[in-house]
Give the backbone structure.
Amino acid sequence: MTDAIETVWQGRFITVRREGRWEYVGRARNIQAAVILAIEDGHVLLVEQYRVPLKANCVELPAGLIGDDTAGEAVEIAAARELEEETGYRAGHIQPLGRFASSPGMVSETFTLVRATDLVKVGEGGGDDHENITVHRIALDAVGAFIEEKRGKGAIIDVKILLLLAAGILAKSQ
């Protein structure tokens, strides 16, 4: 028998739920997210912005919500829109790579990771009026040093950046 799901609180974007002994947070209205791995010519696009829950700047892969304004929006459409809005780059091709969870013990949210290719710079990026996004175009072989520099300046690094650091971390563990 499955425990009933109780909604403890719901806002515009998140919902707090209780199910038996579990308490967890999820996206309201079943909104999904797209995370964009934009790599081309040996460089990756990263974004940095202040995150209120962390009280610090956070270095991340570009990302955004799917269907927050348009029900039934395709992941490829949302990812392309968010990439251009946040970074100023337009992707000629978006390829979904799969669905992932970043903190499955306390958050029901998942995201679809996509690869963006055939990139063309069409604007400055920076996000919408409520975002203050700094765009970084970093050589892949310099990502580790870039992340260490940002940490030294107090930035928090989003877990999804491990995707770019994995080879170096694994090499150090052997």
